[in-house]
UniProtKB/TrEMBL annotation:
GO MF, one example: CoA-transferase activity
Record-given protein name: CoA transferase subunit A
Family affiliation: Belongs to the 3-oxoacid CoA-transferase subunit A family.
InterPro entries referenced in this protein's UniProt entry, alphabetically: 3-oxoacid_CoA-transf_A, CoA_trans_fam_I, CoA_transf_BS, NagB/RpiA_transferase-like
SUPFAM superfamilies named among the record's database cross-references: NagB/RpiA/CoA transferase-like
SMART domains, sorted: CoA_trans
Cross-referenced Pfam families: CoA_trans
N-terminal signal peptide: none
Keywords assigned by UniProt, alphabetized: Transferase
Length: 230
């Protein structure tokens, strides 16, 4: 019988859950908090035609920006793509479909997907082109746009520490979107810098409980150079 408290798997086993044409949620902000080993694994696997949901498209050779640079992504849902000129060039050339969403609304849409809400109401974008294709709702005499929830077939998350059940601790600002992303995947795969036995993480430290996590892989470390390191 499979031990439901043991979620640590090899990278090769984790990669069996990725396929062409899938929807992928990724934690991170400008590459910080993107899971490097999983991203490299996706590249090595040759997966393409992804619909990528993330705060941004990182930088050309950092984090999920690598997936965009290698033209593995057909559509991205993000708050901005300005830090990755390859994303902008592909969008202009008609090679990459981009759905822009204000950062706070994007976070709430992912959270809504993770907790099973039917959507959220927001007045951001009323009277602008952001209304296009969105349902309007009037509540107490005020008009709102219905923002639909976001989920994905697989969510990838980078944690500082995980126990074998998947309780997670994040590294300062690398926490960013990761806790929300962890809730919104049909399958959530965590890359952890450190994996410890169950009971070794103080319950008060845990940000994401293991109930949201399906698999954990050991991180091989960041395999890119940050802008401030040059």
């Amino acid at each position: 019988m499979t031990n439901r408290f043991e979620k640590v798997v090899s990278l090769s086993e984790a990669l069996t859950h990725f396929r062409d044409g899938m929807t992928l949620l990724a934690g991170g902000f400008g590459g910080v908090g993107n899971p490097p080993t999983l991203i490299q694994g996706i590249l090595d696997l040759g997966v393409r035609d992804l619909t990528l949901i993330s705060n941004d498209t990182a930088f050309p050779h950092i984090g999920i920006g690598k997936l965009v640079t290698e033209k593995r992504v057909k559509k991205v849902i993000a708050s901005h793509i300005g830090s990755n000129p390859n994303a902008g060039a592909q969008m202009t050339a008609g090679e990459l479909e981009v759905e822009f969403c204000p950062q706070g609304i994007l976070a709430e849409r992912v959270r809504a997907g993770g907790v099973g809400l039917g959507g959220i109401l927001s007045d951001v974008g009323i009277g602008t082109i952001a209304e296009k294709g969105k349902q309007k709702v009037v509540l107490d005499g005020k008009e709102y746009l219905l923002e639909t929830p976001l989920t994905a077939e697989v969510a990838i998350v980078h944690a500082k520490k995980a126990d074998h059940f998947g309780n997670l601790v994040f590294d300062t600002s690398a926490r960013n979107f990761n806790p929300l992303v962890a809730m919104a995947g049909d399958i959530t795969i965590v890359e952890a810098d450190e994996i410890v036995e169950i009971g070794m993480i103080d319950p008060e430290e845990i940000v994401t409980p293991g109930v949201f996590v399906n698999f954990i892989v050991q991180s091989e470390g960041v395999n890119w150079q940050w802008a401030w390191e040059k």
